[in-house]
Specification:
Number of strands of chain A: 4
CATH architecture of the largest domain in chain B: 2-Layer Sandwich
Oligomer: heterodimer
CATH topology of the largest domain in chain B: Alpha-Beta Plaits
Number of helices of chain B: 10
Strand order of the largest sheet of chain A: 1-2
Radius of gyration of chain A: 29 Å
Order of helices and strands of chain A: HHHEEHHEEH
Distance between the termini of chain B: 66 Å
Helix content of chain A: 25-40%
Largest sheet of chain B: 4 strands, mixed
Strand content of chain A: 5-15%
Largest interface: A-B, 60 and 85 residues
Number of strands of chain B: 13
């Protein structure tokens, strides 16, 4: 059903132009009044305190870490790792995250490899790795909790999902990786 | 015509009355000539539709679209959510110019592939020059983004509180809804394009042809989104203007707009300006915010900000 308005409407519209304007002025002034009267009702605000996050983006078969680490001796020495995780995650982990001052076991717990730990020694689940990041990146964590840094999906007026810091930043090399852009729009031929 | 004159004196003529009486004479000829259905020709202005009208239009369009595209469509007429005024935030310090949003928008909103219509235009600007439209490049083409010397400024409809486009429309085919979304009734638009000239952001787009969903280069046919809103992403006819609606079909159902969902860096924020606890309210209170072309007093509800 093709439509071609221009032929008839333009004629009609110019005919009824002024009548329409007068009537429309009347009707639009009514609708404005109704706006912004009531304040937001409390019940509209859904409790969103509980933070819903996706599971940690582990490589396949790497978790639980204790499967290997339980029987291994802990080596606290800072060193270049060989034959550690490359089989499972594609390449050996090389820290590029404040590496001069840090080593794996600042974040990963030496005794319980299935957990992270905070500076004061408290263990943190991988599901809550943002608490670890927030120790050194306080303002970012604050913004993330408000939905300003990072990303929320789901419902703007209901349940939201947050992405973990680790969904966007590899904890070992956190700079956000550059992306290939989608195609530029076509150029219009100049008339 | 005397009947019409009487009515204007009393100021109660509606477009429909007018058409019914005065224009029915021409209806036969015009309608016959254009192939437009009688029902559509006689359709009332959106704001005057009764529930019965809405039901009929919904059914008519859904049948029409199913016939044309070979699948079931739903055309929603969902009204604004009470106590809601939508606002949008875009973090200039995060956006990397990857254009994922541009194409997510095309898919979600059934934008014409050929001729190409993009509601979101991502501009690349030089860091040294700041926000400056004279040094903006829409057609940047790079292996990887972001480029270290540039930043990116996606522009779409700014959903002005004081929209010049609405004032420019001679037939009131475009207006601001109570939730702040500026919408177009494609059945009412006459294609005069005054609104496009009036918009300072280049956010309105004209369907020169009936939208085609086949990519002219790859010949790939894209799948239409069947979840539509009458004032939003339903398939468009030829010769009308369309524009970003904050994904009215999604946001009135409580979902985020498609561009927010797709953004890989989380630069896009959306929520209710009237809710002091929303992320958009937090941004307005706590971050450095700018709006485009502030001096025009259009009062955008699209806020650019720097989160860093």
């Amino acid at each position: 059903m093709m439509k071609n308005y221009n032929k008839y409407t333009v004629i009609l519209v110019s005919l009824i132009g002024f009548i329409f304007f007068v009537t429309s002025l009347n009707s639009s002034s009514e609708t404005k009044e109704q706006k912004k009267t009531e304040p937001i009702k409390k019940k509209q605000k859904k409790a969103i305190e509980h933070i819903q996050v996706p599971p940690p983006p582990f490589s396949e078969d790497i978790f639980p870490c204790s499967e290997c680490h339980e029987d291994m001796e802990v080596n606290k020495e800072k060193r270049i790792l060989e034959d550690a995780h490359a089989d499972l995650i594609g390449e050996e982990i090389v820290l590029k995250h404040d590496e001069e001052n840090r080593w794996c076991l600042d974040c990963h717990d030496a005794k319980n490899r299935d957990k992270l730990h905070l500076a004061d020694g408290r263990l943190v689940d991988f599901k809550e790795s943002y608490r670890l990041c927030g120790q050194c990146h306080g303002p970012k964590l604050r913004d993330w909790k408000k939905g300003v840094h990072g990303k929320r999906t789901g419902s703007w007026n209901g349940q939201k999902k947050y992405l973990l810091c680790a969904n966007c930043h590899n904890p070992h090399s956190p700079k956000f990786k550059k992306l290939k852009p989608m195609p530029a729009p076509v150029k219009l031929r100049s008339k | 015509m005397s009947e019409i004159k009487d009515k204007t004196k009393k100021m109660e003529v509606s477009r429909r009355d007018f058409i019914k009486t005065g224009a029915l004479v021409t209806t036969a000829a015009v309608v016959g000539g254009c192939g437009i259905s009688k029902e559509e020709f006689l359709q009332q202005h959106f704001k005057e539709l009764t529930q019965e009208d809405v039901k009929n239009i919904k059914k008519r369009l859904e049948t029409e679209y199913e016939k044309e595209f070979g699948k079931k469509f739903s055309v929603s007429f969902k009204e604004p959510i009470p106590q809601t005024l939508f606002g949008y935030g875009l973090d200039i310090s995060r956006c990397i110019g990857c254009r994922r949003c541009v194409y997510a928008c095309v898919d979600e909103n059934n934008l014409s592939i050929d001729p190409q219509i993009h509601w979101i235009q991502v501009l690349e600007m030089e860091k040294s020059k700041g926000v400056n439209f004279h040094h903006a490049n829409l057609h940047y083409d790079r292996e990887k983004v972001p480029d270290d010397d540039h930043f990116y400024l996606p522009v779409a409809c700014q959903q002005c509180e004081n929209p010049p486009c609405v004032k420019a429309c001679p037939v009131e085919a475009t207006w601001k809804e109570k939730d702040g979304i500026v919408v177009v009734d494609y059945n009412w638009c006459i294609g005069c394009r005054n609104c496009m000239a009036a918009c300072p952001y280049g956010a309105r787009h004209f369907n020169w042809k009936k939208p085609s969903y086949i990519d002219p280069k790859t010949k790939k046919k894209s799948e239409l989104n069947e979840d539509t809103h009458y004032l939003g992403n339903r398939p468009r006819p030829q010769g009308i203007v369309d524009k970003c609606t904050f994904c009215v079909q999604r946001t009135r159902e409580g979902k985020y707009p498609a561009c927010v969902e797709i953004c890989p860096v989380g630069a896009r924020k959306f929520g209710n300006l009237l809710d002091p606890d929303s992320e958009i309210s937090y941004i307005l209170k706590n971050k450095r915010v700018l709006i485009l072309k502030e001096e025009l007093n259009t009062q955008p509800k699209f806020f650019y900000f720097y989160a860093t």
